[in-house]
What we know:
Distance between the termini: 30 Å
Number of strands: 0
Helix content: over 70%
Radius of gyration: 21 Å
Shape: globular
Strand content: under 5%
Mean pLDDT: 86
Largest sheet: none
Order of helices and strands: HHHHHHHHHHHHHHHHHH
Amino acid sequence: MISTKDTLLGKLRSGEPLRGAELFKLIMLMSLPAILAQLSMCLMSYIDAAMVGRLGSAQAAAVGLMSSSTWLFGSFCYGNSSGFTVQIAHRCGAGDYSGAKRIFRKGLFTVLGVSLFFALIALAISGSLPHWLRGGPDIIDDARAYFRIYTLFLPVFQLAVYCESALIASGNMKVPSYTSVVMCVLDVVFNYFFIFKMGKGVAGAALGTGLAEVCAGGFLLYYACFRSSELRQDLPVEKKEGDTRKIFDQAFGITWPLWIQNLVSRGAYVAATFIIAPLGTVAIAANSFAIIAEGFCYLPGYGVQDAATSLVGQSLGAGRKELARRLSWIAIACGAGMMTLLAVLMYAFAPQIMALLSQDPEVIALGARCLRIEAWAELLFGVSIVGYGCCVGAGDTLVPSVINFMSMWVIRLGLALLLIPRFGLAGYWIGMATELCVKGIIFAIRVSGTRWMRTRLTASTV
Length: 462
């Protein structure tokens, strides 16, 4: 039996007209499983933080100190994947499933090789990194152990990210979403066992998450290779002369701006950690927990972003630029609207939310203050999240990367340096909220034009 989502995707790929209500329904049908996946990942972060928080503020600060660095290396995994998964979305939109399978196979081995390279770099600096980030002597050892274990599982994380992104690009949102939910449950079980039963503490949290990623990555690889109708590798795939070079040229053209963006944007988080660390253990823990708590607000945005990236890519692959534009604005409105509603709840219940993560009254009070500052930025943050996903779906990654670089390093960190001496940790969050609002306006302007759809990738596939 053909689902409503598959029927609407069929109309998109075949060039049939789609009404506004049908586009909204398609976005919601593809977004809701992705939002569920984001929710499960957010819950996983909450549970991890809560379990570590029960060990004490020093242990929580150790994880918080390294969180910006784990985001940096994890973001490279997403960037590696996008170079191939955007092409998969375009090929599926054009009905070229044999081409999608070729791209998936070539990308699989490539991203694993690149992730091994990044894992070796991370492992090489793991001993010194906590010192570079100005961690105190009470958290250095835990921070080092946590990051080293994280690096060992980085290729597994890459495998899970790539297979998940490839399935989403092909239009399959349910399998990645349900797998994320299962991974969340496994993470809780493994963490409880390693942290409390085996007494591994902070290192146990990294081990538990890594093993959950092993289970999820293995299943997603199996499903993509043997069950997915668009990507399965158990059937002969037609080869085309010169196609390999074209695939890798386009993958690199999409990926290198994302690598630069991840380096400078996530590097800005590392720089922020460097700035915040001298404020003390309470500030580090409050900042880490507040970032995790805010995840409930922006999870709808990233869920809609996944749907928008796939749908815009498939629309352009089908040669339907006007449809891609309409889908983009409907998706932006949906993502920003849902994030705004959750921001109201976050503002109202900020102390209660922080109390779920920490038992320290100082950490709770400071974290709640930061959440209430950030709530004012969620609407435009949603615009930037979904707008960015629309651009990536079109293969437009260079300009968005420049936007992210300028906003992070000039606005966020510039304001942080000015405001932290006067307002402490709250000064950093004021700078961050301001930066997110400015970035949202810039992405709205970008998507309102047409240049983001005029990329080398779309020109070669539409």
